[in-house]
Each structure stands twice: as structure tokens, then as C-alpha cells.
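Homework-ish question, so no full write-ups if that breaks the rules, but can someone show me the predicted structure for this set?
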Amino acid sequence: QVQLVQSGAEVKKPGASVKVSCKASGYTFTSYYMHWVRQAPGQGLEWMGIINPSDGSATYAQKFQGRVAMTRDTSTSTVYLELSSLRSEDTAVFYCARPRLSNSYYNAMDVWGQGTTVTVSS
Amino acid sequence: DIQMTQSPSSLSASVGDRVTITCRASQSISGYLNWYQQKPGKAPKLLIYGASNLQSGVPSRFSGSESGTDFTLTVSSLQPEDFASYYCQQSYSTPHTFGQGTKLEIK
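A: Not a homework solution, just the prediction itself:
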């Protein structure tokens, strides 16, 4: 079955970086884009960006430009989200999510990872 | 960026009620509007895509509609498991912005 399994919770100090992984299984990894979505405690969903696992190209929300990097490893069917210069406001759950349709950028997300909690605290 | 304005932010209703949540886009999104349900501590779940298409496995009491830049999610008869938060999202252009969310609570 199609599944996205994310890495475990992280605790980081302000100014540090975090790298979250999302391992895909049950489908052709390079045929589907992957989104990253953030949710701060008690808050709504925030779209961070999208990566094309086929060629590694990524588009980021302006808010995160310069601090975010989305990468992939096709040998392990894993995408990564790295966020740097962490501050307390970055404390959140981070989700990877796959679009419904292959090779399509403009789709709803129908498969989600379980979420990774990142806590930024001194 | 396209802004998605969702209302109400919270809603109290009873089992069996019909409820409606609305979402307005700041510009045309050509029907690229999706609805998600989220329960506490869980990942969001896709309910409706393309404004009015029911995702596989989602009960038929959920429906979506569009009128220009206004979109509606309707639950025809609330069930106990429907009490959750709901989010709209546009996937027309990046950033794929979400609405602020609606928390549906039991009256």
C-alpha cells in the first residue's frame, strides 16, 4: 500500500538546523511530486513547498526562501526537508504529502506522512 | 499569493445537523479547491478535490460546490466522527495556500 513514513521527533536549539525525512513506498517514487506542510501548535496548515523527485527541482513558499531546502534520494525513495536558522516560532509538526495524480503539480494531497514534531527551545 | 478566506472559524452543531463551511479565494482558481478534515494529533485527510469531487472512501454526506471564487463544503447530516477541523486549500498556483480552518464542535 502507498505509505509515507517520516523520521522521529527532534528537539533543536535556536539557530540550529533540522533535517526531516519522508520515506515513500508502494508507488513509483519519481512519478509523484511531494509537498511539505507545517502546522504550529494549535494553528492551521501552512504550505512550505514542493519537490519533484524525478529531477530534484523544488519550489518554496516565499516565507521560507533562504532557510529551506528540499532534497531527495532516489535510491531510497526518500525526500528530505531541511530548515535552518531555527527560531522558537518554527516549533511545529511537519508533514510530507503526495498529490493524487502522478506528474502533476496542481493536485490535492491524498497521502500524508504521520508528521514529525520539531521543537525549538533553548 | 492567493489568499483563502475561510468561515466560520468555529462552529457548534449537533449530530444530524446540516452544516456548511465556506471558503473564498482572492482571485480565480479555476476550481482547484480542495477540502481536508483533520482530527487532533492526526494528519489531514482529503475529503473533496477539484471543488466538488468526492475522494474515494469518503462518505457521501460530504459534498462540495463552487460559485466563482466562493466554495462550499457541506455535511448533510453530521455524524459523531465528523467533529474535527476542516481546511480548504487552493492548488491553482504556488504557494498552495490553505484557509485558516474551521473547528467543528459538538453543541
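Now go work out the reasoning yourself. Hint: The interface with chain A takes residues 1, 32, 34, 36, 38, 43-46, 49-50, 55, 87, 89, 91-92, 94-101 of chain B (CB under 8 Å).
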